[in-house]
Design goal:
By secondary structure, the chain is α/β, with parallel strands linked by helices. The protein contains 24 helices and 27 strands. It is globular, with a radius of gyration of 28 Å.
């Protein structure tokens, strides 16, 4: 019999909670986790471990929670399994009783039966000091054949009313793959590859928006993609931020990953705008129009003023909607109520958070999030919160209305992708976490380790490491809630998309936690139930017909790449990092085919910035290099990298006329050289190619500089330097697109390479 009545070390307790005892950095150095680090991380999980007695009690409590519950909270199983093996934990006193089981499928069909412990496969026994009896571990075997989906399995004894249930998730074996990526090339491998622009939507500069890109700009951008033969448009995360504080603008530090950023709403595209004389009068007034023109002309997004003006108008639209529709029960009121019903408690609590945050921020501008609220409101189940909802229903309804409007406009963009026959469509981005002061953490405080932060260890581009400031989800708590929050996040981000990028996909297996007060170099990895998370990801991917791309840059263990391959998740490759060795870039044919490739990303130097060493200059000015030697090494490496790129261009017959591979020569980043590098990357085996507009337009400053904050560096604010209306005729963009089209001509029926029947030639 396995006994659990013994002394335990803090290391054993930490391992039981998924804390990895050591980790290797990108340079091969091994870092060992200290006992103090273990205690800090366990404390963040609300697990006391400061004394041997606390460690023993915590270990036994964890084991008791594991074995004393009859069923696990969740079981994730592939639909290819012939038999369901359901773990059952029964105390000795119940092992002679007859149990009834019921399996209720997602569509309401039921199966049932009964069993006794003697008829089950006996795995072993365990004892825990806090439990008076020995616990038997058994496996209940049932015939499989269940449909994919979320089912409920429950057991009870014949003579007691107690029922214990478990979520049973039956998953596909792989994520969804669009048919356009499954086509086999007839004669030329070019015809199996696609491309699309990667866009920071807020950065889109147009002659009609209100100073930042919006969903109408997105629809127009989709039409541009159609004309260029692009099959998708990649977007920054569109997650909800903080309407009370528009300058909190990082899309990777959202209030919620379940809802959308309402500043992307185009107020003039709303049906309510046409019905609101007051809103139209305000918007068309000369002072308002002058303000909009000023906002359009600004080089950076002026979030505070854009947010204030949009919300002023959106409040008028909501008032009009309440008067013309909600009060009269019109068809639009019915549509809104159906949206509210569909999203239920999640939407209400999200809207309630933002109503309360706006309320308290108006009273005191220093109130940055729910931790700064009055104590009575910090618990979403409190009496004060319920009373606020009852007396401020219309205020809460405003934030529900905003989400409905955002959803309608994003849905229109998704439908336009179908109408334009793009092969994939919207390529959405899901951030790795949420801001600790936002709606998701307030609504689900028990799920988060609120005193720790997610980050990354030091690497070549971030040599002091990264602290993203996002509280991590606690693995045990995620399983206890049967991954309900994770499921909802995936659904919301996939529902209008043809592809979803999972930021820092390694987080499905492990996350780098940083205890409070420590630098990123002193963090540790915490492990998650990787196969359960990938299985649910595959199920939602198939249901939403949305392919998955995992951002797997940085320190990536082999096991995560193995899981990505097994589950059909595309990798993410960045040209800068794809080398055969230090002084030789990878030959295009040597790239992984099941991958999305890009020249650069939002967190890295633009192509022009990389070529000119702008990132090195900025990092030097901001003191982001831990040692002068590392800076010098990166300067020398950059010279060698430029030469290696030029030589590869020459070998591929793409070196622009007048350019040289002579190390003494330092060519400028010309439009011809930029187009040649993009055509080079287009030639890679990777089936998906994402192109940043910042690179096509030869912008020098990168979008985000990890490890910095505003005003140190202007992250997430820089607009594109050219209006959307002029992009199609810009010579740099045309040259880049022509080179890409030569290498990736498949696309869709609108592409010039396709004949009038829509078949590729």
């Amino acid at each position: 019999m396995e006994t659990m009545t013994q002394a335990y070390t803090v290391q054993q307790l930490a391992q039981a909670y998924g804390i990895q005892p050591d980790w290797k950095d990108i340079w091969g150095n091994v870092h060992h986790v200290t006992d103090e680090m273990y205690q800090a991380l366990l404390s963040a999980m609300e697990v006391p471990s400061q004394s041997p007695a606390e460690v023993a009690a915590a270990m036994e409590g964890l084991q008791l929670a594991t074995v004393a519950r009859w069923l696990e909270p969740v079981l994730v199983v592939s639909d290819q399994e012939h038999t369901l093996s359901i773990p059952v934990h029964l105390p000795e006193s119940l092992q002679g009783k007859t149990f009834h089981w019921t399996l209720t499928t997602e569509d309401g069909q039921k199966r049932d039966g009964q069993f006794t412990a003697s008829a089950l496969h006996h795995v072993g026994n365990a004892t825990v000091d806090q439990h008076p009896e020995s616990i038997g571990k058994f496996l209940l075997s049932l015939e499989a054949g269940l449909p994919q989906g979320y089912h409920q399995f429950a057991i009870k004894t014949a003579d007691t009313p107690e029922t214990v249930s478990m979520l049973l998730v039956i998953t596909p074996t792989r994520c969804f793959m669009p048919s356009i990526l499954q086509q086999q090339p007839d004669t030329d491998p070019k015809f199996s590859k696609v491309w699309g622009p990667a866009v920071q939507l807020y950065a889109v500069h147009s002659k009609r928006n209100w100073g930042m890109g919006d969903f109408t700009d997105l629809v127009n951008l989709i039409d541009w993609c159609r004309d260029q033969g692009a099959t998708m448009v990649g977007l920054n995360p569109l997650h909800s931020l903080f309407p009370h504080n528009p300058s909190h603008c990082s899309p990777y530090s959202p209030s919620s990953r379940m809802f959308f950023n309402v500043l992307y709403i185009d107020p003039e595209a709303s049906e309510d705008f046409t019905e609101s004389a007051e809103a139209k009068q305000l918007v068309l007034s000369p002072p308002f129009q002058e303000a909009l023109e000023r906002l359009r002309q600004a080089a950076d997004v002026q979030y505070d003023e854009v947010g204030r003006r949009k919300l002023d108008v959106l409040r008028l639209l909501y008032q009009s909607f309440c008067q013309n529709h909600l009060s009269k029960g019109t068809s639009r009121a019915k549509d809104f109520n159906e949206y509210r019903q569909e999203h239920g408690h999640l939407l209400e609590r999200f809207a309630l958070f933002h109503a309360l945050q706006e309320h308290f921020h108006q009273e005191d501008a220093s109130v940055w999030g729910w931790p700064a609220w009055p104590e009575a409101y910090k618990n979403p189940e409190s009496t004060a919160v319920r009373e606020y909802l009852q007396t401020n229903r219309e205020h809460v309804g405003f934030f529900e209305y905003l989400q409905w409007q955002a959803d309608l406009q994003l849905r229109k963009a998704g439908l336009r992708c179908q109408q334009d026959n793009l092969g994939i469509g919207l390529y959405m981005d899901m951030a790795v976490g949420v801001d600790r002061g936002g709606a998701d953490v307030w609504a689900n405080q028990h799920l988060f380790a609120q005193t720790s932060a997610v980050g990354a260890p030091p690497d070549e581009y971030n040599q002091k490491g990264q602290d993203w400031g996002l509280p991590p989800l606690i693995p045990e708590k995620m399983r206890e809630e049967a991954y309900q929050s994770y499921i909802e996040i995936l659904r919301q981000n996939m529902k209008h998309a043809g592809a979803l990028r999972i930021d820092h996909v390694m987080g499905l297996m492990r996350l780098f936690w940083i205890p409070p007060g420590l630098p990123p170099s002193q963090g540790a990895y915490i492990h998650y139930s990787v196969d359960e998370l990938f299985g649910i990801l595959a199920l939602e991917s198939q249901r939403n017909q949305c392919m998955v791309i995992g951002e797997d840059m940085g320190t990536v263990p082999d096991v995560i790449r193995d899981r990505m391959n097994r589950w059909g998740v595309y990798s993410y490759k960045v040209f800068y990092f794809e080398k055969e060795h230090a002084e030789c870039y990878k030959w295009p044919d040597h790239y992984q085919d099941t991958a999305a490739v890009a020249v650069s990303t939002h967190d890295l130097p633009t192509l022009t910035g990389f070529w000119q060493g702008r990132d090195i200059t900025v990092r030097t000015e901001l003191d982001l290099y831990p040692t002068p030697e590392l800076r010098e090494r990166q300067i020398n490496d950059r010279v060698l990298e430029r030469i290696a790129i030029l030589r590869l261009l020459e070998q591929r017959g793409l070196l622009p006329e007048g350019s040289s591979t002579d190390p003494a020569s330092a060519p400028e980043m010309t439009p011809a050289l930029s187009a040649a590098i993009h055509q080079l990357v287009s030639q890679t085996s990777s089936k998906v190619f994402m192109v940043q507009f910042e690179d096509m337009l030869q912008q020098i400053d990168q979008i985000n500089l990890p490890g910095t904050t505003d005003p140190v560096y202007s992250c997430w604010k820089r607009k594109l330097t050219l209006p959307l209306e002029e992009i199609a005729t810009d010579s740099r963009v045309k040259a880049t697109c022509a080179g890409i089209a030569h290498e990736r001509p498949l696309a869709h029926p609108h592409h010039p390479q396709a004949d009038e029947t829509g078949k590729k030639k």
